[in-house]
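Case study.
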Amino acid sequence: MKTATMPDRRLKVDSELKRLILRHYLGAFRAKRPLTRRPVAWVTSGAPVEILLALGILPVYPENYGALCGSRKAAVPYCEEAEKAGYSLDLCAYARNSIGSMLSGRGELGGRPLPAPDLLLTTKNICGVVVKWWEVVARHYGCPLFVLDTPFAADGVTPEQKEYVRGQLEDLVDFCLRATRRRRPPREAFERRLREVLDLSGQATALWQELQVLRRNSPTPASALDMFTNLFPIVTLRGTQACVDYYRKVRDELSERVRRGEGAVPGERFRLVWDNIAIWYNFDLVRYLHRRGAAFVGETYTDAWGLYDFKEARVGDPLDAMAELYSLVLLNVGLEVRKERLFRMVRLQRADGVVFHSCRSCKTYSLGQYELARAVRDELGLPTLIIEADMVDSRAFASGPTVTRIDAFLELLSGGL
Amino acid sequence: MNGASVAAGPPPCRTAGEAARAALERLVRAGADPVSYLRGRRAAGAGPAVGYVCGYVPEEVILAAGLHPVRLGGRPGPVGPADSRLQSFACSFARACLDGLLTLTGSEVAGVVFAYTCDSLRAVAESWRIHAPRGTFFHFLNLPARLKGRGVEDYTRAALSRFAVSLQAVEGGRPVTGESLEAAARLTAAVRAGLGRLAAVRSARPDILPGSTFIAIARGATVLDRGEAARDLDTLAADLEAVVEANPLPGDGAGSRPRVLVTGGFLETEGPLRLIEEAGLDIAADDLCLGGRALAFGAGTEARPDAESGLGPALARLAALYLGRVPCPTKHPPERRFAFVCDEAARHDVDGVVFLLQKFCDPHAFDYPELRHRLGSAGHPSLLLEVEQGALSRGQALTRLEAFAEGLREAMEGGRAG
Ligand code: SF4
Ligand code: SF4
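After joint prediction, the assembly is written out as follows.
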């Protein structure tokens, strides 16, 4: 096995990823110009974006923009802008970052904030926060807002729940047409186009799942940093050919690494699973673990995008299948289901321990982690580590105590092996 | 859920008669310590009680199932067992709720009902589902976040219907029927009507019925046997209305105190309200979970004696009632609540508004800047205070409240002089 001294090996496709990100945001700005005009929608990460794409609407993701600001360590001043306007320091930092950037008219896209939306789509399936956040944005821009309401799917989706969500999806189509002042396309043409988009989404998801399967190898060909970085296309470009093409390349590169026995982390000794959003401004923390031979072989956060399996949608009624899938996303199911999914990942990826990022911004993801951590320890007999931080607001992070806890956790892992 | 940190002594209220005083005490005592009330009730051989932790749980359905609904609002004070279940950034109300539930012995209530509102309370429900004593009834009323739009009413009715059916699992309950639901709705409407009369007294004469006492009474009305509560509220309201009539002019100093509207979520105790009064402010109106919002239900959807008696229509009316009420910030769209707060501030002629923001409460915190702006534009200055563990940090809050009161007084005098 080849061992390098580098703390982490970057994937070759990363340079292409930068181009994709650039192209996406440039495209969003271009969409606002008269000659290349295209309606722009601000959407949440759990939005049924396939409907928008089928109608020629360009989705942009304020959460992804938050991750971008976070990874440039630039989110705090925007958060402070929002706080100055009266938004509590305790609110989700993605929201504060977005609102602050919007209110100040400044941002990280060549100095600009996200381009103004023509319409807004928020989906309750990830949290209640996004409903409130999108209401703020709707008032600011005075533009139409659609709230896709997905009741809690603790143990699954009831028939009335599915019907409720499906009805809203139909309404969403009308809303989009109204908001963009377009005529309704013939039903058949729309459904054909929707199926094409869903097919592309499904292909990307299948490739994404393949990446996770490749990570079962020892050493793992991709660790958390690769996966966090490579989330951008599956979140933002899902439903496009560019997304599929890109993940083919990632898959090929990881397969090649596996063939050569090359791991993402030199000298892999421990295999870990990560729970919750990345700490975007502090990848050094993960690198610190890498240097000690601890590699991440799975993340509940990245795994969540593997759930958009649109096989059913391609054959049956697309809206029906979408109503179900978008109700069953990771943050809309009960703790028992989350536990099962976590345990399954630990087993399949052959993990030795679980790291929980207790993210003070994100209550829907974080509350319940104490129960999950206890279950991992008691039922799987594996060590756990809880890191108190925030995904983009670096003010909430204390480095010293965190490193001490990481060291103790690593000792526990060493003892157990 | 115990009364540990509730101030002792009778709450201020200028009742005239013995019966009214007794009614007041019954209501306030039950609200301040629901657990003791429930134990006493049980010892007296009363039927089973079902707890609920959110104002969106329609107690009408619990009553219609022949059970006693009781709102469990959380144990005030430092966090106990919930500390190892929920991180400190869950709102302290959610943590207090879980704490209260985890310290129940299992004999006080036959079960607990949650409603889908915010992310934090959903987490409390999930945690409770894991730790509830065996055999305890659990129901998560999976309500929509939207108040209007395609399918909302049908979906709400279906969720209520599931709830009604699920209650059959509680031993001692009976199947919910159209008639029993209509009767329960009438009883609940009577309780709300009684509270509405008291709210009017509070607004007219906060020196006779202070806002803190009004909320203590409203809390009691979510605990006490509802028939008894309706009677007690009636007695109390009649008595206080007579007191107001007999004393048309406010006493010494009263009337010169600035009037405020208090807005916020659920309060575990009246402590924060008492502090506001202590600082020299009169609470004339509120937009609190237990007060103003609990009373402001849509008109025309109440149970009607002549209504069809089938369960379907009764559930549909109930769904419309809850969808039409002044919403809490967890519901969309928020405009109705914004309008309610601004209208109430105008209607009750308040001089200012106090925001009591539960620390770490996302829904209220998101609405705060907009609401502050709208109130400001309408000429109502406001003050924001954070409530943690059911209380305000006394020293700091009192200073800020006093300064706010002083500012309002000056504005009032300036207004009079002008
Ligand atoms: S609360 Fe959590 S899920 Fe919701 S927007 Fe913030 S980070 Fe995302
Ligand atoms: S106070 Fe706010 S966060 Fe807490 S339970 Fe109520 S709505 Fe939820």
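Observations recorded in class. Residues 183 and 364 of chain B are 34 Å apart (CA to CA). Residues B 91, 93-94, 117-118, 120-121, 265-266, 330, 358, 361-364 surround iron/sulfur cluster (ligand 2) (CB under 6 Å). We will return to this complex in the next lecture.
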